[in-house]
Amino acid sequence: MRRRLIPLLLALALAACGRETARDSIPPPPAAPERVICASPAVAEIVFALGAGDQVVGVSAFTDRPPEAAAKPVIGGALAPNRERILALDPDLILSQGRSENLSGFAREHGIAFRSLPLDTLADLRDAIAACATILGREETGRRILREMDTGFASLPTCEPVPVFIALGHAPGDLSGLMTTGPGTFLHELVECAGGRNLFADARVLWPRISRESLVRRNPDLLLDIQALPLNPERRAALIADWTGLGFDPARVRIVEDDRLLRPGPQAPEAAARLSKILHSPPAP
Q1: Which helix (H) or strand (E) segment is 141 a member of?
Q2: Are residues 144 and 29 in the same domain?
Q3: Which end of the chain is more exposed for a tag (fewer CB within 10 A), N or C?
Q4: What is the Cα–Cα distance from 266 to 45, expressed in whole angstroms?
Q5: Are residues 229 and 145 located together in one domain of the fold?
Q6: Does residue 280 lie in a domain region?
Q7: Domain count, the chain
Q8: What's the whole-model pTM score?
Q9: Backbone torsions φ then ψ of 131, nearest 5 degrees
């Protein structure tokens, strides 16, 4: 399970390292791209939601949504893309996420059109959907997706904010390397939209590591332990046991198995709605 979560957290950290890379000497996107590589799972999800999956010839590692995207040839991960495989796919456009210096340099070297999209926040997500819609000739679909997202967020209930700790990277038996989110991230904004109050909203970095002592001192009402994949009962029990060993009542722990919280995409309102139910419902028996 942790092998799946670590790449997602790495992608978030890389995206947060900077905005779009410089485009000097990189060809602009073609008027009607026909052979697109989506160099992040989040970008692939946006492109397929726009109905442009038939224009995609390759995707990055860990792309699993929708199934049609997962079936595309894989070019490797964000840090070490397979250059030979990319060239063999003969793309006329590479769409990436955040700071993508390796890919942008490769695209510049080979004269491939390249666009990297910030996806740190909900505003970035909206801009990325609009940009991809324009580039891929799917403007009306893009406008429809944005309207549906607006409707979804507007329908979230208004509740008294619940002070929460957002746990990332927690493996059973190990609370030594806890990561959380500070302000200015997609996850932080989703939690606040859902009616949570991030207890580490005063952090000076986007993805801080925190000590067990600082967590106990801040004493959250709820702990949101975010896991990228579904858990078996034994693993779930082990995660909860770690928190109880730290002195937290099991009723204050919510294990959240949903990678939509870590991957900005058009399903963000649905993810926020699920979080809202988790935050404002009594614990499961």
Answers
A1: helix 139-154
A2: yes
A3: C
A4: 8
A5: no
A6: no
A7: 2
A8: 0.90
A9: -65, -45
Structural domain includes residue 283: no
In this structure, the number of other CB atoms found within 10 A of the CB of residue 23 comes to 15
d(CA 206, CA 183): 6
Q: Report pLDDT digits (tens) over 226-268.
A: 998 889 999 999 999 999 999 999 999 999 998 889 899 999 9
User: Look-up: residue for tokens 């602009």?
Assistant: 28
DSSP assignment letter at 77: -
Provide the 8-state DSSP code for 155: T
In 3D space, the residue among 134, 125, 183 whose CA is nearest the CA of residue 152 turns out to be 125
Other CB atoms within 10 Å distance of the CB of residue 10: 14
Q: Where are the beta strands (DSSP E) in 151-273?
A: 162-167, 196-198, 222-227, 253-257
Do 169 and 77 lie in one domain? The reply is no
CB atoms within 10 A of CB 57: 20
For residues 147 and 174, state if they share a domain. no
Give the sheet arrangement for strand 196-198, strand by strand: 196-198, 162-167, 222-227, 253-257
Cα–Cα dist 224/254, whole Å: 5
**Omega of the bond leading into 66 within 30 degrees of 0 (cis):** yes
- Asked if the structure places residue 6 within a domain, the reply is no
Token pair, residue 54, equals 């038939």
pLDDT tens-place string over residues 97-119: 988 888 999 999 999 999 999 99
H or E, element range at 193 = helix 186-193
Domain-terminating residue out of 153, 185, 202: 153
Q: What is the spatial distance between Cα 244 and Cα 267, in angstroms, rounded to a whole number?
A: 32
DSSP for 12-72, written as a single string: HHHHTT-SSPP-TTPPPPPSS--SEEE-SHHHHHHHHHTT-GGGEEEE-TT--SSHHHHTS
Q: Give dist(CA 5, CA 36) in Å, integer.
A: 26
